[in-house]
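Bug #77: duplicate submission created two jobs. Keeping one. Sequence:
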Amino acid sequence: MMKHIFAACFLWVLMPLMAADAPNVSPEGLKLFTAHTNFIAFAQSRESEIRSGVNDNMQRVFWIRLSEAVAADDAKNGTKIAIPAEMGRFVPLMPATVRQLKVQLDASGSVEVSLVAADKTHKVNPWWNADNRTTHYFNLGVVADVLKKRDIPASTEDLYLVIKADAALKGVWSGGVSGVPVECDLTRYSSLGTDKPVLRGKLTIDATALRYINGVCGIGATNFFRLYALPDVPMNDGESLTNVSEGVYAQREYTKYGFLPGRQQIQFSYFEKSAKVIAEDTQKPGYTDRGFVVKEKAKADPEKRSRFMSAWSNLDWIECFDNWPSWMTLKKPAGIKNLRGTPDEQYWDAAAELASDMLAVRREQTGRLAGWYEVKNESDLSDEWAYHMKESGADGWEYLARFHGAVASRLHADFPGVKVGGPTTAWLDFSANDMIVAKNQLRFMDMTRDSLDFYAHHYYGVNPEFTSVSKSHFLYGNIDAVTDLLRAHMVNTSNVKPIIVSECGGANADNSRGVETFSHIYRNHLALFHFMERPDIFPMTVFFTIPATWWAKDDKTPLMVYRDPKAGKSGGMVRSTLFDFIEFWSVFADGGRRVPVRIEADEPEHYIKAQAIIRGKTLVAAVFNPKPRKASLSLAAVLPKGAAVISAKQKRLFIDLGVWRVEETDIAGDTVPLYGCETALIVLELSAVPAPAAAQHENTYYADREMLATGGECSLQVSVPVKGLSRSRLRVSLRMGASWKDAVLAVSVNGTALTTRYPLAAMNGIYTSFEFDVPSTLVQEKNTVYIDALPSGGTVAAVTMMNVYR
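Kept job's structure:
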């Protein structure tokens, strides 16, 4: 770890300027800002782990050292650790996910932690049970509870931790796996949009036609409304929580609203070290003793298998292999840090055999298998795939492709029909380092075209949520550019395969706090509306929303939380505020047919997204206003003869001055108001079931080349049908150079310049996309798209034409 030194005086000069950027900030927000600012200065003045987050690339404080090494005798007697004032003032205000204590021992052993406050002792509970390990995690929620009873800033002079361990302490750290962002964002504590003019526009829902996106009309839970869990044997009627697991209970609750389980991991290290199910074959080093297969199959319960098959016989879900056991992992050369069980090349056959054997056990236990198997979780990271480390001396992506091929070959042979894919990417930042991330992804697809059935990625975004409205934001152009390049390369190399998104949206939000719930749901919507526009590309997407965490009873991040963590499930479970997301989307999760919906506004780049479905007599439009500014849309419903609107309601999810709001109101007249960063459902009850007689087809076509260097002429070809063409739009995915001062993006189609032009001076180094309306009269079966010369150092990554046919 590096010791981060920071100039506190600079921070105090900067603080008032940053606080003033957010209008009408609530007192709670200002209090948070002061505590957060001092906490970051404190972290940067000590030995701390400060780095970019894996999935969002934001600078975060993960861990702060509170104690140096402590000898074994002192640790056994109990060592006192003071709680610094800067930390104490911030702990009550921070999310629960970063209120953790990490105790590292120099040998396996047990640890007990207590909090002493004004001579009263409180037990500090473990984050999860971890006896006889070298690293232990504890929940500092009790510290927050004590400090919340005091005025903030609270004194911590009479507070200290007592740590007893039966081994020497290597160090004690405070923090959490999700980290505290270095930048304090007060936007959520403001009245969003009051500092900007209201955007005026029109929302048109057309129930006279069905909407087909690249041939797909239907929508439902099997596609987009999945949670981070495996399907389990359902509860029997009348069965209580005390008789079933917390996961099964949570499954009953969310499936009531049409949501389904979607994904989990098979962690081989768990079966080695915790469950002790697998062991090395003493006669064949590097391989697993296959005797476990017979033993585990014998434990299968026929009655549970029958109930599982009855409930889930038609469901596909995703499982991901990770953390191969110690006897087959890469250990050489010196300097390799194999943190997530990367198998040594000489044992890849052993790794594939173990994966196959585990599936044989699963099939015996449940009666069937998942539909999709990912070979290695987030294998673009060197922490996950050790061959990416320079010390390995290997071409990490070439090794990764061959490993995927080895596992896929074995699973295809043993389980025909099972789909295998990867690389289950953590970080889709295509702007970095001359687009090396994008280049590696395209190369991986080329190397695995004959071995894999699908490609898998995690869509989290790489920028703060909504505070930046620049084109670098994942929503404002970047997410489209990422998907367009991946798909264009598939089309141009005749390697078109599904993209499975096994994690997306928000993650690790403390749902006891409204601002955290809002952030989680906002990020869910950022991803969801992108996927719903591309049902042909994304057959399954899974929110990183964990239904229940029975291994961490104090956890506030899941969908269901314990009423009393100390009592566990015997005290009952309740829905967290994250359940508002489940209830909100239940009408879409239950399924429906798409109908055309359109947003027109007085600002071309308004970024408001919409989807609409018809279900019997109910017409529903979901509208997402991603920017922190208000909008007012006039509502127009185009209905077949004989149908009329008999009621119109708006269900709203938004945040105001840090307060999470869920409201349902009647729509007055024909006006739909949208708060800044609001998501709304417009529900129209009709007098009769409409019978759409027309069809609207929206198809996407890709230019014949990708990844073209700037610095000269750029001409591409796009072939499209023209019969029935109603509207056309062009999207250019572009990575700007590092120092483009006066560059402008200008495009011509078939020799005619398009009227929209984009100045690029403020976007140096960014990867994003730009859209242009194309007059339908310009479009031909074979179209030449010409991009005016841009300075060198950039890349025209992909060009797509999106056409509407009636």
